[in-house]
Design goal:
Chain lengths: ~260, ~375
Amino acid sequence: MSNAFTWLTDPANWHDQLGTPGIPAQVVAHLEYSLGAVAIATAVALPLGLLIGHTRRGASIVTVANGLRALPTFGLLILLYVVISPHIGGRGDGPYLVPTEIVLVLMAIPPVLGNTSAGVGNVSPAVRDASLGIGMTGREVLLRVEVPIALPLIISGVRSAVLQVVATATVAAYVGLGGIGRYLYDGLAARDFSQMTGGAVLVAVLALALDTLLAAVQRWTVSPGVSGRFKAGTAQAALGPAGAARPGAPEAAAEEGVPA
Amino acid sequence: MITFESVTKRYPGGTVAVDQLDLEAPTGKTTVLVGPSGCGKTTSLRMINRMIEPTSGRVLIDGADTSAVSPARLRRGIGYVIQHSGLLPHRTVVDNIATVPLLLGVDRRTARARSLELLERVGLPQEMAKRYPAQLSGGQQQRVGVARALAADPPVMLMDEPFSAVDPVVREQLQNEFLRLQSDLGKTIVFVTHDIDEAVKLGDQIAVMRVGGTLAQVAGPSELLARPVDAFVAGFVGRDRGYRALGFTTVPSSVPVEREETVRLGESLTTARDRLAHGWVLVVDAEDRPQGWLSEHSVRSARDDLVTPDALNLGGTLATVRGSLRELLDAALSSPSGRGVVTDGQGHLLGTISPAAAVRLIEEHGSTAADAAGRGETA
Ligand SMILES: Nc1ncnc2c1ncn2[C@@H]1O[C@H](COP(=O)(O)OP(=O)(O)OP(=O)(O)O)[C@@H](O)[C@H]1O
Ligand SMILES: [Mg+2]
């Protein structure tokens, strides 16, 4: 561990040198692979999950997607590399990038899809019914009612996708790409354990940082009415029906507006 | 006016929930659908706003077929209140109330201003505007539900057991406020309940349904209590309907009250003792408003020298000349002294009446209702 510390604090590792990218460049590459994959997965799984949750049909799609989790990441990557790469022309990273991204996307889809469809599907039937009953269209019910209520689950789906993908994106290095995985594979090849441990620490720190960021987004976007984080003062007032008026209690909540 | 024209609903399983229903809900009046569980009340109600589509037949609002407009558009013009409010948990009270105006394209500022006005109308303080539904009691949520239904000022309101999930005290408050609101607003309301007392209290017209989704009787409340058409309706409106029917006859201003000797709060107990009649004396305040009864026992055993509020027996109910015969009889029966207290419209004492005199008055004024109720029982 102390060796990892030495490795991490060695200024030489933080600068690009003669074709070897430094830590910042590898972290950026790692972020690109990961966030790219999560973005693609979300673009596919979010609308699909909304549709499945809203219509309450097609739960089998979620089951199949969950089955993807059983595929061995490494085996799949090698298979795709062998099958796909010869068909991708051009120089550059394409032949390595495409199989890697596919593996990462497949990994990110199940949590986003599962959480989105479950979150939307589990919105109380009474609330859905009342929303339709007062004149919302199906689309309005989805966007103005179901999504805001399901938001905590949807975001936590994205969070677990991010955690898994960031950890797994280390495999990019196996097919010759960059990213933090480089330190793991290169370290292993060179039996440089401080480099390996340092890489592992970097992955963990990156994953935690992203998760913290998304947790903040979640706090900021989820309505207090859903999360139960009422402003101080109003929560207490709820206990006594009469004693509601509390001049001076912070009351800015409603002005911020809740994304509908 | 809402018109059902031989409307039938058969569910996929084969259940016929509503069978050839013909019914008119007059404009500006409250029509109550009442009947045992599963008789098709909710199904009938929801066919008005097309939350359920009829299998056959038509529902018209003011002569226009409801199936001619899109469901969403139809529903924005119809207030809808359900048993468990169905408020949006992620929106504040004020935004919940503003939901329909916002859907209709009213700007946010106007919609909010109107919401705050409605909040007051349904008896909630402005401070609640920024709370979320989870921060409200069940009764408060129902009030917000009513305000939300009123927000776009729809001519028609549908209410499905809106007050049945709250405790009896709150229910009575909500019912009274419903009556007050409705007398101001004069909406065309269809109200579902399985509680005949609620139906009689709130309805201008009551439609009693029987299981299988057919109408048993459509009548005004006093008519329904007085002349149930058959044994089913008679059984459903209940045993003490003769007594409840008294609720529809007002106490005549010529009510034969007897003068009652009174003593004021703060007068001496000696005075009170002198005025005891059959063991009781009525205590009033400086403006002659009845406060309670003082018994001979408490007059004699009191430590103070003066008549104080805490020595009073508050057991009896009060009747007023503008009230119903039911209240009059109840006042006479509930009074600890056996003398029912009658006040004028302002709460000042007029006199007292014995149960026997109250019954004589009922025989004179309420005879038709009582007779007819008796006939219905044997029919
Ligand atoms: N979606 C449905 N599918 C099949 N049958 C239904 C459905 N909804 C209601 N029913 C049946 O239709 C009949 C009428 O139901 P409805 O809900 O209208 O009764 P209700 O008078 O409102 O009863 P309650 O007082 O219990 O609310 C019942 O027999 C019920 O089981
Ligand atoms: Mg019902």
